[in-house]
Amino acid sequence: MSNVGLQEKADKRGRFGSFGGRFVPETLMNALLELEAGYREALADHAFQTELRRLLTEYSGRPTPLTLAENLTRSIGGAKIYLKREDLNHTGAHKINNTLGQGLLAKRMGKKKLIAETGAGQHGVASATVAALLGLECRVFMGEEDVRRQRLNVFRMELLGAEVVPVSSGTRTLKDATNEAIRHWVSHVEDTFYLIGSAVGPHPYPEMVKMFQRVIGDEARAQLLEREGRLPDEVIACVGGGSNAIGMFTAFLSDNKVRLTGVEAAGAGVDTDRHAATLTKGSPGVLHGSLSYLLQNEHGQVLPAHSISAGLDYPGVGPEHAYLKESGRVRYTTATDQEALVAVQTLCQQEGILPALESAHAIAEALKLAANRSHQDVVLVCLSGRGDKDVESIRQGLEGLHDESD
Ligand SMILES: Cc1ncc(COP(=O)(O)O)c(C=O)c1O
């Protein structure tokens, strides 16, 4: 495994290796060029950086803590497990890091309206929150299936003053919500900022979202060095579109000895047709404006994804992950619905922490890896969000598990 020559930024065409780019209708090209220029100016603007840092600290509660999962470590009897607590952010997940960044950028660019897509609802809630804070209008597109699964988050968005638009096409999940958001953006580009919730979409979104999320890894790296005086042996994060994972991994990309593992949703199993394991089972193609891996059939038709976790239930993935997979720097693996449910139960019962179903996929992998490592080793896991939003899905899932074992 080597990162010699690893490209950490998109090139001029917005490519990470052969992945990424801009595959959009002509009508969006100017909007993307305007966004890229606005983003680069903001990055170089001291006042923008200061305001973003202020909000991340005073409003969201950063730095989030690093928690040593002592009971879990003891019961597994292998490596020490540390959790990077993005669940303790305001609104309950890492999504707020990116929405604060893009929200401030929208305001700086003079846009009055935000649109967003959401799966689990965490990005929708974070977008609605930032819109309320910054005095912007907010409309959130959400698949009908996710509206059903994430009722609590729909109510939260409405309470925050956002309009939630249920999407009834396709599998009525995140892919379809994203299609609808792009369709809306095409006809409202003048006054509307599209606040994408993951490291996906056309250039410059994947690079921009990573920049707003890299605070996760930068903080965790410094915190771990202070606590342990060393870097971790393994870093693990779940991968939906890939924003919490890229935010965590970026800080460690050039530390060759640190193994990086992304965990996709295997749903009912990667050998069934009910999973969301895009990098594991997919192939290169274009979805939502960029070239990356996706789940598709032999005719290039996008296949439906499945996961118990609404935030991982997406047939695409950010282009930088496709690049990191092909370069061999990051290992991508999977956890099933069942393994995620067991991980939720384990973390609740042993540490008193209720993780989001998304994050539970990373925990499931950590439980396996830590068991096979020595006491001297350190495993760092991104706990991307809290599980309050998922309690109903978890209850039903656990009932199903118990029924199966009866
Ligand atoms: C808590 C949590 N973790 C992870 C994800 C997956 O997104 P990403 O891969 O962009 O981090 C989501 C998406 O909704 C989420 O809510």
UniProtKB/TrEMBL annotation:
GO terms for molecular function: tryptophan synthase activity. Its cofactor is pyridoxal 5'-phosphate. InterPro entries: Trp_synth_b_CS, Trp_synth_beta, Trp_synth_beta/beta-like, TrpB-like_PALP, TrpB-like_PALP_sf. Keywords: Amino-acid biosynthesis, Aromatic amino acid biosynthesis, Lyase, Pyridoxal phosphate, Tryptophan biosynthesis. It is an enzyme of class 4 (lyase). Its EC number is 4.2.1.20. It catalyses: (1S,2R)-1-C-(indol-3-yl)glycerol 3-phosphate + L-serine = D-glyceraldehyde 3-phosphate + L-tryptophan + H2O. Residues 60-385 form the Tryptophan synthase beta chain-like PALP domain. The modification N6-(pyridoxal phosphate)lysine is found at residue 95. One of its GO terms (cellular component) is cytoplasm. Pathway: Amino-acid biosynthesis; L-tryptophan biosynthesis; L-tryptophan from chorismate: step 5/5. Belongs to the TrpB family. The beta subunit is responsible for the synthesis of L-tryptophan from indole and L-serine. HAMAP family: Trp_synth_beta. Tetramer of two alpha and two beta chains. NCBIfam families: trpB. This is Tryptophan synthase beta chain. It comes from Desmospora activa DSM 45169. The gene is trpB.
